[in-house]
Specification:
Length: about 230
């Protein structure tokens, strides 16, 4: 059964720059369907800030034919062993909005036990270069909304030059996530996400864009001293 994984790992500044130029993940990796190697970013930080693009903090989003292929990669591949030293989630697919080439959306869909179950959201897009200023104008308020939302346990953005951008967030419950999307959260300026989506529908920022929702099925390793980003279901 196909699974997705999301990895975070710290590597040296030099290695990070080198791997941004030459992707360390081979397309011939056994059992790998698709992978996106990206540099982590701080949600909502100023565009021209050292905290915006975190060279040395790597985010990798991957899809595998099955868990056995992932386990073999983490054990036997050179870069896989580096990822094994970091933190990752194993994810079962629930829903997709939009399309993004490379990934193969499963026909089988996982189900959450209840709306109070934890859920993971990943967005990934290929940007239109001329739309970047408008995307930043509408996107940074949404980044701050997700970053500061009491319903998230971990949230970040990532980028792969020249035009791939992505976000990743873990939510304590599906209800808190959907309330945020619809503008119903009890936070300051709750409609920031809904307003940005209306602007995207008016004039798209992207060549490709998808939002993927997942059920977390396993958490491995640690990130920034924590090993418990996935909360227990209520």
């Amino acid at each position: 059964m196909s699974i997705f994984t999301y990895h975070l790992v710290k590597i040296s500044f030099y290695d990070a720059l080198k791997r941004l130029i030459s992707n360390p993940i081979s397309n011939e990796t056994k059992g790998l369907i698709h992978a996106e190697f990206m540099t982590a970013m701080t949600l909502g930080s100023p565009i021209f800030s050292p905290s915006r693009i975190l060279i040395g903090q790597v985010a990798v989003f991957m899809q595998w034919e099955n868990e056995a292929a992932l386990d073999e990669y983490l054990l036997n591949d050179k870069f896989g062993r580096e990822l094994e030293k970091g933190w990752h989630l194993r994810l079962s697919f629930i829903r997709e909005w939009g399309e993004f080439s490379g990934f193969k959306i499963p026909t089988e869909k996982a189900e959450l036990e209840s709306p109070n179950s934890p859920v993971v959201a990943v967005t990934i897009a290929r940007m239109k270069p001329l739309a970047v200023p408008r995307f930043i104008h509408w996107g940074r308020p949404v980044e701050k909304l997700v970053r500061d939302h009491p319903g998230t346990t971990l949230s970040l953005a990532s980028i792969k030059f020249p035009n791939t951008v992505s976000t990743f967030s873990i939510w304590k419950s599906e209800k808190e996530m959907t309330d945020m999307v619809r503008g119903h959260s009890k936070v300051e300026r709750p409609k920031r996400h809904a307003d940005a989506m209306k602007e995207r529908e008016r004039k798209n920022f992207h060549y490709e864009f998808t939002t993927l929702r997942f059920k977390p099925i396993g958490e491995f390793g640690s990130w920034k001293g924590r090993t418990d980003y996935i909360p227990k279901s209520n």
